[in-house]
């Protein structure tokens, strides 16, 4: 069947929309990416979103307005990638507006009923709450899909997603979903983006291709101070977000204000690479094939620094195994949406800290009887 996966992450660079043909195959799925696009947020929506995110807070009215506006934006992205095709279902992660894993609190917005009416299709949404309800962090969830799509019989692999926050999934050879080790390692590009945006007065929003960092020098004392944050030494399960590694983290390290633009970018880039490497080593797969995805996988300075920090590993992007680096997360939620329709448990308790495995997601239904009948037919014929 045809599905649209929608994802907007902590980097706030827009809405990723993937149109995929998906069919169950034994314990995994056969996937074909038909189209992918990233729809940037318009300026007004981006400002409203940043004003609502920690360390700021939004009123109930502001959140309600933002939920609807995000629903409209997500629907527009889904409609654009679907074109004239009839879609069987949409799987929308939404935009995380608050996340505190240890307290089992998470909130994603983007009105699914607005998306449903625009696409005339069932929408699967709110994937994180079910895991929180059974004592989990609600994150990370993509490791389940990593195990289905990326585990290999002949080699150890580590999937690394470098978005605003970075996370890893350790996949020992022949691993099943419940065998994986996965957690958020800390900042991905979030701190780099915030630093560059602030230092350039908004003229730049990111370090394009890692060019600034490549021309800078790492401040060793500053890096040591940032690496002392207790999150990095904490044992999994663990998850994090803007609440810990937002712009306020930069203000907590005043030495950063003394750095040049290039030196600050180089130091924050090294922080990202070192903490990813620390996570990979903690997983026991430091010599594995490391497959990087997410917007940060386009930052050559991050990949170079990661290669230095993990010299025994083979650092590549997920493109090498047929999962485009920008589309991987949106594809993953299309898979999680199919799991919702099958009512299959799709969290990994050892990853999230949940007390048990549970089905994820809620459903905004449209012709759902026919859709579930088609799901059953496909599953019986695999």
How would you characterize the overall build of this protein?
- The chain is α/β, with parallel strands linked by helices.
- 41% of the residues lie in helices and 22% in strands.
- It contains 16 helices and twelve strands.
- Strands 1, 2, 3, 4, 5, 6 and 12 form a seven-stranded mixed β-sheet that branches. Strands 9-8-7-10-11 form a five-stranded mixed β-sheet, sandwiched between helices.
- Helix 1 crosses helix 2.
- It starts with a strand and ends with a helix.
Question: What layout of secondary structure does this protein have?
Answer:
Elements lengths: L1 E7 L6 E11 L2 E12 L3 H10 L7 H23 L6 E12 L4 E5 L2 H8 L2 E4 L3 H5 L8 H9 L6 E6 L2 E7 L9 E7 L2 H10 L11 H4 L5 H8 L2 H4 L8 H4 L1 H5 L9 H23 L5 E5 L6 H10 L4 E4 L10 H15 L6 H4 L9 E3 L3 H14 L1
Parallel strand pairs: 1-4, 4-6, 7-10, 10-11
Antiparallel strand pairs: 1-2, 2-3, 4-5, 6-12, 7-8, 8-9
Helix pairs in contact: 1-2, 2-3, 6-12, 8-12, 12-13
Q: Could you provide a short overview of the structure?
A:
With 382 residues, the protein is an alpha/beta fold. It has helices at 43-52, 60-82, 112-119, 129-133, 142-150, 190-199, 211-214, 220-227, 230-233, 242-245, 247-251, 261-283, 300-309, 328-342, 349-352, 368-381; strands at 2-8, 15-25, 28-39, 89-100, 105-109, 122-125, 157-162, 165-171, 181-187, 289-293, 314-317, 362-364. Helices cover 41% and strands 22% of the residues.
């Amino acid at each position: 069947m045809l599905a649209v996966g929608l994802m907007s992450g902590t980097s706030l660079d827009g809405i990723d929309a993937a149109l995929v043909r998906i069919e169950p195959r034994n314990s995994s799925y056969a996937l074909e990416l038909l189209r992918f696009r990233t729809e940037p947020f318009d300026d007004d929506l981006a400002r409203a979103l940043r004003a609502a995110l920690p360390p700021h807070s939004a009123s109930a009215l502001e959140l309600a307005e933002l939920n609807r506006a995000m629903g409209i934006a997500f629907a527009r992205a889904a409609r654009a990638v679907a074109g004239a095709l009839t879609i069987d279902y949409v799987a929308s992660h939404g935009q995380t507006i608050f996340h505190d894993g240890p307290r089992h609190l998470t909130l994603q917005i983007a009105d699914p009923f607005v998306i449903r009416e625009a696409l005339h299709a069932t929408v699967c949404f709110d994937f994180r709450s079910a895991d929180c309800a059974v004592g989990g962090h609600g994150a990370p969830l993509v490791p389940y899909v990593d195990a289905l799509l990326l585990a290999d019989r002949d080699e150890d692999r580590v999937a690394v997603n470098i978005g605003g926050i970075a996370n890893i999934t350790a996949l020992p050879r022949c691993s099943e979903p419940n065998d994986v080790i996965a957690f958020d390692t800390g900042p991905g590009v979030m701190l780099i983006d915030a630093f560059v945006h602030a230092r350039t007065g908004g003229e730049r929003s990111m370090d394009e291709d890692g060019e600034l960092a490549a021309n800078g020098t790492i401040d060793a004392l500053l890096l040591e101070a940032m690496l002392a944050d207790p999150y990095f030494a904490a044992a999994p399960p663990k998850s994090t977000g803007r609440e810990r590694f937002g712009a306020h983290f930069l203000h907590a390290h005043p030495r950063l204000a003394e750095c040049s633009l290039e030196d600050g970018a180089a130091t924050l880039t090294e922080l990202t690479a070192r903490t990813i490497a620390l996570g990979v080593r903690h997983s026991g797969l430091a010599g594995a094939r490391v497959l990087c995805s997410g917007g940060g996988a386009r930052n050559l300075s991050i990949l170079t620094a990661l290669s230095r920090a993990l010299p025994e590993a083979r650092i590549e992007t997920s493109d090498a195994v047929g999962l485009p680096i920008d589309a991987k997360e949106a594809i993953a939620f299309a898979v999680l949406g199919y799991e919702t329709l099958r009512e299959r448990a799709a969290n990994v308790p050892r990853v999230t800290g949940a007390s048990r495995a549970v089905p994820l997601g809620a459903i905004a239904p449209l012709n759902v009887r026919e859709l579930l009948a088609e799901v059953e037919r496909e599953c019986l014929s695999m």
